[in-house]
Amino acid sequence: MVRVIIFLLLVYFVARAVWRLVYGIAEGLSGRRDPQSPSAVALARDPVCGTYVVPSRALTSGSGNDLHFFCSERCRQAWSKR
Predict the structure, then answer these.
(1) pTM, whole model, 2 decimals?
(2) In three state form, how does the secondary structure of 26-82 look?
(3) Which of these, 58, 57, 63, 64, lies nearest to 76 by C-alpha position?
(4) Contacts of 45 (CB under 8 A, 6+ apart)
(5) For 8-59, how does the pLDDT look when each residue is reduced to its tens digit (9 = 90+)?
(6) Residue 1 DSSP symbol
(7) Quick count: other Cβ atoms within 10 Å of Cβ 72?
């Protein structure tokens, strides 16, 4: 009796794993994206350390076309001392 229960549980988990695999492959081939996935954001490169930062969350220096984005106050100060 215990063997039957273990066998049924094993079949259930294997079937579920196969279903998820097939579903994942089908989703990848269809090109559909999860509606909750974040949209792509253009990143800006910190001119001092080279770290890529999200412009909306980065520290800035300059104005207009001469706007630079920084990952930290330390990088911004190093750039202004230049």
Answers:
(1) 0.53
(2) HHHHHCCCCCCCCCCCCCEECCCCCCEECHHHCEEECCHHHCEEECCHHHHHHHHHC
(3) 58
(4) 51, 52, 53, 69
(5) 999 999 999 999 999 888 887 776 666 676 678 899 999 999 999 999 999 9
(6) -
(7) 15
